[in-house]
Please model this.
Amino acid sequence: MRTIKLTEETKQNLLEDLLKRSPNNYGQFEQTVADILGEVKVHKDKAVFEYTKKFDHVEINASNLVVTEEEIKEAYELVDQKLVEIIRKALVNIRDFHQKQKQYSWFDSKPDGTMLGQKVTALQRVGVYVPGGKAVYPSSVLMNVVPAKVAGVEEIIMTTPPDKNGKVFPATIVAANEAGVDRIYKVGGAQAIAALAYGTESIPKVDKIVGPGNIFVALAKKAVYGHVSIDSIAGPSEILVLADETANPRFVAADLLSQAEHDEMASAILVTTSNELAKQVSKEVEGFVARLSRKDIIEKSLENYGYILVVDTMQEAIDVTNEIASEHLEIVTKNPFDIMTRIKNAGAIFLGEYSSEPLGDYFAGPNHVLPTNGTAKFFSPLSVDDFIKKSSIISYSREALEPISQDIIAFAENEQLTAHANSIKVRFEK
Model:
């Protein structure tokens, strides 16, 4: 990790460097994705099966596209029972947290015959995309499915790429079954996003697509937005640790590497007021990297996007933290709760030295699907809100409408919308 003194110039260089990781900067792949989307939109199942053979090297057809009850049973036999129990424990925490986010319809009536309100309705069908490439993430299954279930989504379907034998990772199947997925389809990549967005003979069109994926999946989600809703266009993982001289350098180094191991594009940043902590963390990072299993990925990640930023004051540290708007933010300072009140932009905030980032990834309960690439300035974590829609309710009696009718007519006529005005006028004709 490179250690740099924070100045306006170094801050600007850092922000520009981090933004290079955004899916919006990979336009060279957009035409490939557009071609895949177009083929699936026109040729449906046929195109999905052909792309699966081309990219995943496996023959999939209508008869073996869906994970069967037998395959679900087999998955439970292949997965360690201890992991099944851990998934169930995590499910309880995730469900309990998201239950507190539920919104309900409300109506407000007045004696004059006015009733206004808001009707909350869950989405009918949601598609969850689950990657199947470099690593298996059953935790991602839980985080995407549980808020949809809590919201009351009627049907949740999942797509995930099969292996060369036409099988889905057993842990993914178990997590999906435990969380309540209705059907699992063996298809991945941009073709899976196209199938969910447009519908095919075998895969129904959904109302919303959620879940992470590679650059082709991200660009496909971006392209189909409008045909369906999406959660976000996720970029590579990132962590920022804001620490002072009281932090444990060994803990800080371990937490930075917990994100650097995701992929070569992941970002790990320490912002500190302590030169001594910066030196100690750098030393601990070297020691950890030498013996961790994903050493090659971590080294590339740190070489590309690993930084230790040394600042003069805690206010400078807070300011640059808000500017970076990291996906994961750990605050390891003398008084982390005080610092937290001054943080405006972060996906998830972890307070204190025993609230490490993997706690949020797997077990605590809050969602680990978080805004990346600075979008925490205007986006929020995935939640129950992502799986509902709201309708405004308006009901007026004649007695309630008459006193304000002339105001509405005047407003409409000012905008030269005479049909609007007439709609009110006809109700009070002699």
User: Anything to note?
Assistant: DSSP finds 18 helices and 14 strands in the chain. The first strand starts at residue 2 and ends at 5. Residues 162 and 260 are 26 Å apart (CA to CA).
